[in-house]
Amino acid sequence: MNEEVPGMPEVRSFSDRAAMGAAAAADVADELRARLAAQDAVRMVFAAAPSQNDMLDRLVAAPGIDWTRVTAFHMDEYLGLPADSPARFANWLDRAVFTRLPFAQVHRIDPEAEVAGYAKLLAEAPIDIVCLGIGQNGHLAFNDPPVADLDDPEDVKIVELDRTCRQQQVDDGQFPAFDDVPTHAVTLTVPRLLDARRLFCVVPGAAKRHAVERALHAPVSAADPATALRTHPAVTLYLDAEADPRA
Q1: Of 145, 184, 190, nearest in space to 164 by CA
Q2: Are 17 and 243 contacting, i.e. CB atoms less than 8 angstroms apart?
Q3: How many domains does the chain have?
């Protein structure tokens, strides 16, 4: 049972996705510059989802960041897709950010490899920054309500995807039909994500409004995995007007 006292993330709301993405990117860039000024290297984890597009485009263009001292990871990956499938998250992130910046290293999840290998890479040093979103069912990464464990002893694991999560991938335009979406994936667990020093959570769109409401106000539990964000001391949540349940 998670014994930490729930708090409330900093919530920043904007009129549209472009303004939301610009603000989130500016904050991530500021965090990167500050950490690179104080330490030799930075390690960060990226989510792969259309919800992150606006933020990533602005972050790629941000000045004054020595990306050659930044190591990148991604947080989840489908099982069963061909290596060249555009729907694979590693390929999506290559297009969105990984091949657009001169990272020191990029560690992509190999869905055919043992998950312990990726967990070992993550554990080599602290993770400084996680850029993530919230799913329509409240998931963080691929920790859907049926499989999420807020006290998971694992750092990386294979999970079965919830039907709501799979339908979201169709709604987001990543797959033509529900049956095309893989049934299983590799994911960083909730505790592994929350072990990072700083979290930036970007959540646009009306389809996410209910999940945001639950994340901010439902009891902290695996029934609403995003509620776990309230147990972390350094989370900022970025919303557009459509996603903001207070609007």
Answers
A1: 145
A2: no
A3: 1
8 A C-beta contact, residue 138 and residue 211: yes
Q: What is the pTM of this model?
A: 0.94
In a domain, 75, yes or no: yes
Phi, psi of 4 (to 5 degrees): -70, 145
CB-facing half-sphere around the CA of 245: CA atoms within 13 A: 12
b/e 130-144 (16+ beta carbons within 10 angstroms → b)? bbbbbbbbbbbbbbb
C-alpha triplet 67, 69, 74: angle, nearest 5°: 70
Residue 40: domain span: 15-240
Q: Taking a C-beta distance cutoff of 8 angstroms, is the pair 156, 187 a contact? A: yes
* Residue 2, pLDDT score: 33
Check: CB of residue 162 under 8 Å from CB of residue 144.
yes
SS (H, E, C) 179-242: HHCCCEEEEECHHHHHCCCEEEEEECCHHHHHHHHHHHHCCCECCEHHHHHHHCCCEEEEEECC
Kindly state whether residue 10 falls inside one of the protein's structural domains: no
Cα distance between residue 3 and residue 43, in whole Å: 28
Tens digits of residue pLDDT in 100-120: 999 999 999 999 899 999 999
**How far, in Å, CA of 39 to CA of 138, rounded?**
34
Q: What is the CATH number of the domain that holds 53?
A: 3.40.50.1360
User: Is position 4 within any domain?
Assistant: no
Which position has the higher pLDDT, 5 or 129?
Answer: 129
